[in-house]
Amino acid sequence: QVQLVESGGGLVQPGGSLTLSCAVSGTTISVLNIGWTRQAPGNRREIVAAISTGGHINYLESVEGRFTLSRDNAKNSIYLQMNDLKIEDTAVYYCTMWGAADYWGQGTQVTVSS
Fold this sequence. Notes:
By secondary structure, the protein is an all-beta fold. It has strands at residues 3-7, 10-12, 18-25, 33-39, 46-51, 57-59, 67-72, 77-82, 91-98, 103-104, 108-112.
């Protein structure tokens, strides 16, 4: 059974930083495309960052230069370092895998507010 467990969300002021973590079990992340999606109230879910099996990383244009996605195959985990957070980054963030089937975790809330 594939499971994705996110952690690291919270409340932060604009300009602050957070690091999200996602621990995966039941499959090996190195053979799947994996990344982070987010959904704010009233908005569609969007892909924030994703890494392919070949290691190529794509970012949502609005987070380029502020967010960094990394993958640790030994720990079967991925991370999202988020710097210079903005109010518009407020959302529930989901660790997501894409393949023959799509999987995602329960989500972690990120709130950016002064």
